[in-house]
Amino acid sequence: MGYLPQHSLDNLKKYAYKGVDKSLFSRYVLNPFWTWFVTLWPLSVAPNTTLDAIDGKQARRTGMAGPLGEMFDHGCDALNTTLEVILASRALGLGRSWWTVSSQIATLANFYLTTWEEYHTGQLFLGYFSGPVEGIIMIVTIYMISGYYGPQFWEQGIWSFTHLKHLPLMSKLPDLPLNESFMVFGAFGLGFNILHSYLNVYAAQRKGSGGHQPASRTPPLLLLLPFVASALIQIAWLSHPRYNDSWILGSAAFVPFLCAWGLQFAHQVGRMILAHVTKDKFPIFDWVWAWSALGAIDANLPRVFGISPLIQTTPRRTTLFVWLTLVVSAVVYARFVVLVIRDITNFLGIACFTVRKKDGKGQWHDARPDKVH
How far is Cα 295 from Cα 323, in angstroms, rounded to an integer? Predict the structure, then answer.
């Protein structure tokens, strides 16, 4: 018995990628470049070893487009999301703070939202302003500014920087630092994306298209709650009362904590993407949350029951437990990736990192560059 049941594997043959990208920047700038750039790559190069923006184009050139490609592509994106949060927060000078936590929540929420929308509509929708396009360009711009001026650039007040402080209306508004203003802008963007994704799902449900997923009595909006629950667990752990100077926020344990959170999130959305390509039921509970819930409960024992933590009694033990959480999260995610890749490649008779083709007898072999069509 493999990781995937037979009916899920059978549904892989019905999979067809559908995507919509309304970004003007993609249409007139990036896509023409990608279309040219992919032609520079030999046909013997597997799509999954190429750059993120051209892997799909390379897959179509080599005849390897399929569900595994989407799983691999979005799985890498899910991991990159947390890494981008860490790097961008450092570039903005946010440091180990609740602003960085807020950035993590907002960024992961956007990714979860897009995956939730794709599951229910059957297509990946990128609007006129999306994270994978304009969001990345904006982050690159932040890196360039911070690289030239230093992170202290973002500590300037927004009205002072824009020279609007002297205006009567602006004088009544708080002169937030640029980095905090960026976070506020991101919150409005998240709100807009939630509304837009909901409208797309609602329209798909009314038309009966709904991504052709299994019939479910659970309203789509309720399937946003798994992300809320997982985020609340992490917040509860971070917001625990300080005991014997044991603390995560503001300590060396903060970055591994975010990485563990990111791996758990990647596992969560990875199962959602798998459910989409196999037309299976939407995954609601992820048992790996239990590990973080243990950390949150243990850290909050002084607040809830008035007793000292059983595990996180010192800063060193807290740090070790966070690192152990990171290891557990990495092992769980790695196991998921290996089992899913094994089952899909065995069933479809394809490879993940090499280009293969069928011979006259229907057997798969590594393809020579001059034989790939």
Answer: 12
Place of tokens 């824009």: 162
Q: What Å distances lie between residue 263 and 64, 88, 329, CA to CA? A: 27, 18, 6
Q: Evaluate whether residue 255 is within a structural domain.
A: yes
How would you class 355 by CB atoms within 10 Å of its CB: exposed for 0-12, middle for 13-18, buried for 19 or more? buried
Taking the C-alpha atoms of residue 44 and residue 318, their distance in angstroms, rounded to an integer, is: 48
Identify the domain containing residue 234 by its residue range. 6-371
What is the number of domains present in the chain? 1
Please give, one letter per residue, the 3-state secondary structure of 108-159. HHHHHHHHHHHHHHCCEEECCCCHHHHHHHHHHHHHHHHHHHCHHHHHCEHH
Q: Is the pTM of this model over 0.85?
A: yes
Mean pLDDT per segment of 10 residues, for the chain of length 373 residues? 82 82 87 94 87 88 83 89 94 92 93 91 82 86 94 89 80 84 85 85 76 65 93 94 81 95 96 92 91 94 90 92 96 94 84 67 56 41
Amino acid of residue 259:
C
Residues 6+ apart with CB under 8 A from 14: 279
**CA 283 from centre of chain:** 16
* Contact status, residue 94 vs residue 103, Cβ threshold 8 Å: yes
Who contacts 198 (Cβ-Cβ below 8 Å, separation ≥6)?
221
Does residue 1 belong to any structural domain of this protein? no
pLDDT reported for residue 1: 52
